[in-house]
Amino acid sequence: MDDQDPIASRRDMLRLAGLASLGAGLARAAQDTAPAGESVAGMPFEVRSKVRLGFIGIGGRGTSLIEEFSAIPDVEILALCDVVAEKAGKAKAGLVKAGKPAPALYHNGDHDYEKLVARDDLDLVIIATPWIWHVPMALAGMKHGKHVAVEVPAARTIDDCWALVDTSEATRRHCIQLENCCYGYNEMLVWNMVRAGLFGEITHAACAYNHDLREILFSNEGEGLWRRFEHLDRNGNLYPTHGLGPVAHYLDINRGDRFDTLVSMSSPVASLPEYRKTHLAAGDPRQKEIYRCGDLNISLIRTARGKVITLEHNTSTPQPYDRINLVAGTKGIFRDYPPRIYVDGSHDEAFGSIDPYKARFEHAYWTKVGAMAKQLGGHGGMDFVMAWRLIECIKQGVAPDIDVYDAAAWSAPGPLSEQSVAGGSAPVKFPDFTRHRWQKAAG
Ligand SMILES: NC(=O)c1ccc[n+]([C@@H]2O[C@H](COP(=O)([O-])OP(=O)(O)OC[C@H]3O[C@@H](n4cnc5c(N)ncnc54)[C@H](O)[C@@H]3O)[C@@H](O)[C@H]2O)c1
Questions:
Q1: Going by CATH, does the domain composed of 182-363+404-440 fall within 3.30.360.10?
Q2: Would you state the pLDDT for residue 440?
Q3: Residue 11 has pLDDT above 60, yes or no
Q4: Is 47 exposed, middle or buried (0-12, 13-18, 19+ CB in 10 A)?
Q5: Is the CB of 87 under 6 A from ligand 1?
Q6: Where do the DSSP E strands lie in 223-349?
Q7: What Cα–Cα distance (Å) separates residue 197 from each residue in 147, 192, 339, 353, 356?
Q8: How confident is the model at residue 178 (pLDDT cuts 50, 70, 90)?
Q9: Closest protein CA for atom 30 of ligand 1
Q10: Could you tell me if the CB of 59 is within 6 A of ligand 1?
């Protein structure tokens, strides 16, 4: 895999993308003939005292997720799948070294995951593969009776978002989006502040995935083998959920409000072509690639209740990491990077530190497992808090925090921004993946 010719591999990826979306299209067509499913919002998990997991995709992300989940008591990892046998083998060796039972391995080609999801001893399948594989793998898992948890973004077309919703409803299996940023210390602290009314009536928010990925995009391993190809054929927000997930929580999206309309603009493409001039050999075939995705994509989203969100995506230019993470209302504002707060009348018109607020607003999950989360360290601890909380939901037999309607709505700005940019920044409508059930507030 690591020695692949990039152009040939791009052709393969596009062929696979075609197959993947064809699969989802077929699934949609099949579901269209069935009555719309009963909602899975609030549907509890079956109670389990031990939670049995299978993993598909043991690259950078899959490996770190295995570390987080395997650190949780009562988790059993029974099966691992990756097309690269050494990656699955290395993860297995790590588990055995840590005193865990040896998981079964699946590494015989692109579709060996179908054998993993067909096992009858898994409660949840975790999917951390390149984006084009998320939907076919999630659909296969649910159709085999497994709950699935999918890396971000869950889907990259609107048809695929619907395929996830239709299949989750038809199979009564959850499709969870593994949006770790929803579990960050600041995000959970701020969510508590919002719910306590500290910022008054919320009117707007801003969020982003602004992360200089140039080195990773041109790497000869890991994401460099697939992620840059998304820049060839798509122009929009390729990775919306890290910023949008936490903001969706602040704004009660799918639980009293919903994303309604989006307009989007993309800047020119300049930074990837400039970077490769000085970082790749003159004869490298990647010098001939033509990128369509503008360096910066910026979208405006209006919710059904009239709230406004700005959403940015920029993985191409030199810049410090920034998810913005701003929420504001009639009584104050929070914004991140660095974290700062202003509450009406409290700081003489200057932002202040969030430290004095921590004792009152720290989220209970962080109070409970924050020390362990920091010790494991994945993305500052948010990865462990997410993993622990998902396993707790299964053990307690309650609904997951993030369900298929969230996975679809948070992923949808990808294809919708492409559509808006292609249409001269025309407004485009979000589908109502909840089928009008969004008006019901969270219980
Ligand atoms: N939430 C986060 O913070 C975060 C961070 C990094 C990546 N991600 C997401 O995780 C996913 C994986 O990213 P990554 O960085 O681990 O990429 P990666 O390239 O390192 O890993 C992907 C793995 O999937 C394997 N794979 C590809 N096709 C397969 C198939 N048909 N069957 C089985 N295995 C297959 C590859 O061999 C590879 O090991 C992506 O969706 C990415 O967006 C999320």
A1: yes
A2: 83
A3: no
A4: exposed
A5: yes
A6: 259-266, 297-303, 308-314, 326-329, 332-335, 340-343
A7: 35, 9, 19, 18, 17
A8: very high
A9: 110
A10: yes
Q: Write the CATH number of the domain with boundaries 40-178.
A: 3.40.50.720
In terms of DSSP bridges, do strands 124-127 and 202-210 run parallel, antiparallel, or are they unpaired? Answer: unpaired
Q: d(Cα 438, Cα 253) in Å, to the nearest integer?
A: 7
Environment class of residue 109 by beta-carbon count within 10 Å: exposed (0-12), middle (13-18) or buried (19+)? exposed
Does the C-beta of 151 come closer than 6 Å to ligand 1?
A: yes
Distance, in Å, from the CA atom of 411 to the CA atom of 238, rounded to the nearest integer, reads: 9
Q: Does 57 sit in the ligand 1 pocket, CB within 6 Å?
A: yes
Tokens for 137?
Answer: 């793998």
Beta strands 147-150 and 175-177, pairing class: parallel
Verify whether ligand 1 is closer than 6 Å to residue 61 (CB atom). Answer: yes
User: How confident is the model at residue 36, as a pLDDT?
Assistant: 55
Q: CB of 128 closer than 6 A to ligand 1?
A: yes
Pocket test for ligand 1, best of 3, 15, 61, 107 (most atoms within 8 A of CB): 61
Distance 222 CA to ligand 1 centre (A): 8
pTM equals: 0.93
